[in-house]
Write a structure and sequence with these properties.
The protein is α/β, with parallel strands linked by helices. It contains 36 helices and 24 strands. The strands form six sheets. It has a seven-stranded mixed sheet. A five-stranded mixed barrel has the order 1-3-4-5-6. Strand 10 (565-566) and strand 11 (573-574) form a beta hairpin. Helix 8 (233-252) runs parallel beside helix 12.
């Protein structure tokens, strides 16, 4: 490149070309190197070679360099004035304008946050101040597209490296003037695109005084370089060194070439001042060094400063080149190494020596095992060593190789002897359990007992806890809370419908696609040997042709066996004694007895209405509102609405259906809010269109109408948004002005109210109606209490007479009853005949009557040993033609001798009685302890009688009111 540049310069001199670049010459040289044009401009001369080869060029700005250099001061001034005229001509040639730059004495001040702008260079800036931008646009329209660009000083007390552009537009007037450097550049506003302004620097200016504050307008003085001797050897030598350094930089860095090309296209011939500006402008110096060059009016000093900057740039370019060379060598070395490795693999493959993959695998397994080698059991280490030795002897292409590799992968990935640090802080655990669940006192107490025992012992043994209860009461989430309270890792898997023993105990390694069982997978995932494992739906274990999974679970859960749990795939004993197992089940009757015997059953009966209200308010509603992106101030669900939702839509024991209903409510609320905002935006747009068509006065009235329509929509029952009627805006000067922000604020204040009156609009018609069909039960009808998998419920047992006659005595039972209830009806018929015979021997009702006993809701299957006393009471009520006491419900099974047997589901039945507003309940005496353990809010308002014999029920059900009141 140097030879090309030199030959071009010599050829230009020999042909006697001029030094100044005419527009035609520039167009012909655009395809050549930008530096070539610069250096040709700087070096072009008609003189012969020698130390003063470039002597004549710097005498003037636009001459051809043929005139001799002026010797006296008068000649220098004349030449300088000629240079200024040429410079003004060159400037006018760039952007032809009526208004000359030297006539600009008052300009708008533009702050430059990063670098000053040198004459002859472009700079795009972003103007955020609308007033300043408007002033620039206006000055451009007035054919005076000039302004002053001044570098911004750093704020006192701030880091110089911090970006100050964000705070520039906040400065105004005197404050902005104090932050600007006095010396800047007169710039031409070349173009304006939005808030981007393209500036072209012309000449140096200095601020003399402030004229206007917003935007900042200042008076300026045009600065000129100090006189200097253009034939001085020092200046020449400095300029030659600058050119030489620029040439060297251009060899190593291509980043400057575009700047050189752009500069030479818009600036005439080079002279010493322009050479100094050029070098400083394209260097990577910081803004203070660049400002120092801009403020320097002594040309020799300016050249010296520029030389320092370009020398530093040359050093940076050399460092950049060395870095690029090092990286290139590194990349080429890696590529060469890769090719050699590939060739080596091919050679070893041909010679049968390919052992690299097996060696790498062995190293990988040993490295993985190294941190836990001390804690790993000896028998496991022995198996691993044997398998590693076996791996080295196998061919990589054999199937046995992949089996061994997978086996070692599982063996080395298990957390042998690695345990997580448990937290035995009882108070912290209590806080976590209370945060996640409301109520469930007995469950929380059992977990706290487990933590307390672990704290006293210093370690905790694995236990098997089975949480049984209806769906949706939080069994699975309780397990997750226990893990968080104990600081154990949590792992959950469901065994519902599981019919393959291999899912629990693993497959044999010889099978294709063999995998370990669930517990081994669990240990690999959690990476600790003492996690909390939640086994979900254990009451739904299946049984298929591949064995009995329930029996396989015995080894997994039995504390006496799981210390040496043997997985079929690993075939080495695993210690699971530190694992805490938590099982969940809806009903424990379907769990096999041997498995049930190893569990500690904790029953979760469900939630009463008060508990559901608290859960809905504190947990479900909050989570649902956040999930829907609705702010608390935008919606209000009253307590009465929640209570109605629970009573009429969500009577089940759990809260899962309640959560679904709350989500349904909030989805509809979200739709209302979004629809309202869309209507507001539409009405606001129409109002603005009306302003443009009617004039400025109508703006105020239209905005007022928009606000009024919002207040009317807020008063609509249920807050259901309707389209407000479009009113014709009246033009009035006295109408108060309402801004757009006021409309938006009024919109945000509106709140959606969910109350009992509009609850059906969100969730539809009520699903449940009152369980009480009768205010006072008629003859032959008695209310009983039943337990279901979804919680407790009340049900009526009705008996009626079909026909009567001698020898017609028999009983017919309907209502989709199971075998247990059918037998209960037969027992009840026999016992009721015996009791009636003892109470009234003359009454032959049962012997001569064909009776029909029915349990309503015949489409629902019903079975269970707790309806005997209710059936007897119903039969006796019909036989004696006497209704039972008002607000009475009962439960219990009866023997043929009239003894009352205990029942289950005391809490669920008590909750069902309270829901049906029953005041008096009859329970078997054996269930007194179960009732005493219930919470006070469940027992509140209930008159409970505990009986051993049916005669006590007879007195309670058919005794006179006076006798009952005395009791």
């Amino acid at each position: 490149m140097l030879k090309a540049l030199t030959s071009t310069c010599l050829r230009t001199r020999l042909q006697g070309t001029t030094t100044s670049f005419s527009p035609q010459l520039r167009r012909t040289t655009e395809s050549t190197s930008p530096l070539l044009r610069v250096l040709d401009s700087l070096k072009g001369s008609r003189n012969s070679r020698g130390p003063y080869l470039y002597r004549r060029f710097f005498c003037s700005d636009s001459t051809d360099g043929s005139d001799p250099a002026p010797e006296s001061g008068t000649e220098a001034k004349a030449v300088e004035s000629e240079g200024e005229e040429a410079e003004s001509k060159a400037s006018s040639a760039i952007v032809p304008a009526v208004f000359r730059p030297e006539d600009c004495l008052t300009v708008v001040a533009l702050p430059l946050p990063h670098r000053p702008l040198f004459p002859g260079f472009y700079m795009p800036i972003y103007v955020k101040d609308p007033k300043l931008l408007a002033a620039l646009v206006e000055s451009r329209k007035r054919q005076a597209p000039y302004a002053g660009a001044f570098l911004l000083k750093d704020a006192p007390g701030t880091d110089a490296t911090v970006d100050t552009e964000k705070s520039v537009h906040d400065l105004k007037g005197k404050e902005l003037l104090d932050r600007l450097h006095e010396v800047g550049t007169l710039v031409q506003i070349s173009n304006i695109h939005g808030d981007q302004v393209i500036l072209m620097g012309h000449r140096r200016i200095q601020i003399s005084e402030m004229v206007g504050e917003d935007p900042l307008t200042v008076k300026v003085e045009h600065l000129k370089e100090k006189p200097y001797d253009k034939d001085d050897d020092v200046i020449k030598a400095t300029s030659f060194e600058v050119i030489s350094t620029l040439r060297d930089v251009l060899k190593t860095s291509s980043l400057w070439r575009d700047q050189v090309q752009t500069y030479t296209q818009h600036v005439g011939d080079f002279n010493y001042p322009r050479l100094a500006d050029f070098g400083a402008a394209i260097s990577g110096a910081n803004k203070f060094q660049s400002q120092e060059v801009l403020e320097e009016l002594d040309v020799p000093k300016r050249l010296q400063l520029t030389l320092e900057l370009v020398k530093k740039e040359l050093e940076i370019s050399k460092i950049q080149e060395s870095i690029a060379k090092a990286i290139e060598e590194k990349i080429s070395g890696e590529q060469r190494r890769y090719l050699l490795n590939e060739q080596l693999k091919a050679i070893k493959k041909e010679l049968g020596l390919e052992t690299d993959d097996k060696t790498a695998l062995s190293a990988k397994f040993r490295e993985r095992l190294e941190p836990k080698k001390e804690k790993c059991p000896p028998h496991v280490l022995q198996v691993i060593e044997e398998e590693l030795t076996k791996l080295q002897l196998l061919e990589a292409s054999s199937s046995e190789f992949n089996v061994t590799r997978n086996y070692l992968d599982w063996l080395t990935a298990l957390p042998w002897g690695i345990y997580s640090d448990e937290n035995f802080d009882v108070l912290r655990a209590q806080k976590i359990l209370d945060e996640d669940h409301y109520g469930l006192t007995d469950v929380k107490e059992r977990i706290l007992e487990f933590i307390a025992v672990g704290k006293l012992r210093g370690s905790s043994q694995g236990k098997i806890i089975c949480l049984s209860g209806p769906p949706g009461v939080g069994k699975t989430s309780i397990g997750r809370s226990i893990a968080r309270a104990l600081n154990r890792k949590f792992y959950r898997f469901s065994v519902g419908g599981l019919s393959d023993v291999a899912e629990i105990k693993g497959h044999r390694r010889t099978y294709i696609g063999a995998m370990p069982g669930k517990m081994v997978q669990c240990l690999k995932n959690v990476e600790t040997a003492n996690p909390l494992v939640l086994i979900d739906e254990i009451d739904k274990l299946g049984r298929g042709h591949a064995g009995d999974p329930a029996s396989a679970m015995l080894e997994l859960l039995d504390p006496e066996q799981n210390a040496n749990f043997l997985d079929h795939y690993l075939d080495v004993p695993i210690d699971l004694s530190k694992v805490l197992f938590v099982c969940t089940a809806n009903v424990i009757e379907t769990i096999p007895n041997p498995l049930l015997d190893r569990m500690e059953i904790i029953s979760i009966a469900g939630y009463i209405t008060d508990e559901k209200v608290h859960i809905a308010r504190d947990y479900l509603e909050k989570n649902t509102r956040e999930a829907c992106g609705i702010k608390p101030e935008e919606v209000e669900v009253t307590d009465a609405a929640l209570l109605a939702l629970i009573e009429n839509y969500c009577r089940e024991a759990g809260v899962r259906n309640l959560q679904k209903q709350i989500e349904k409510i909030y989805r509809k609320i979200a739709l209302q809010l979004v629809r309202r905002r869309a209507q507001n935006e539409h009405s606001l747009t129409e109002a603005q269109d009306g302003v443009e068509s009617l004039g400025g006065c109508s703006t105020d009235k239209t905005s007022e109408i928009s606000v009024e329509s919002e207040s009317k929509s807020a008063d609509t029952p249920g807050n259901q948004i309707e389209n407000p009627p479009q009113a014709e805006p009246a033009v009035s000067e006295e109408t108060p002005k309402v801004e757009t922000s006021d409309v938006t604020e009024a919109t945000n204040v509106d709140k959606v109210l969910v109350d009992v009156s509009n609850l059906a609009n969100f969730v539809g018609k009520p699903v449940f109606h009152a369980d009480r069909i009768y205010d006072r039960t008629p003859v032959g009808v008695v209310m009983g209490l039943a337990w279901t998998a979804m919680g407790g419920s009340t049900l009526y047992i009705e008996t009626t007479l079909v026909e009567q006659g001698e020898g017609k005595g028999k009983l017919q039972a309907t209502g989709q009853l199971g075998d247990v209830m059918k037998e209960s009806s037969q027992i009840a018929h026999t016992v009721s005949r015996a009791i009636l015979l003892g109470k009234d021997p003359s009454n032959t009702f049962f012997a001569t009557s064909h009776l029909h006993l029915h349990v309503p809701a015949g489409a629902t299957p019903k079975d269970g040993p707790s309806a005997g006393c209710t059936m007897i009471t119903s039969l006796l009520s019909l036989a004696m033609n006497k209704p039972v006491k008002k607000d009475l419900a009962m439960t219990g099974e009866v023997t043929l001798t009239g003894k009352i047997l205990p029942i289950g589901g005391v809490k669920e039945k008590a909750i069902a009685a309270r829901r049906s507003e029953v005041k008096t309940i009859i329970f078997p005496s054996a269930n007194r302890r179960d009732f005493d353990e219930l919470a006070d809010n469940v027992k509140e308002g209930l008159d409970v009688h505990f009986v051993d014999d049916y005669n006590q029920i007879f007195d309670l059900a058919f005794g006179d009111e006076q006798k009952m009141e005395e009791k």
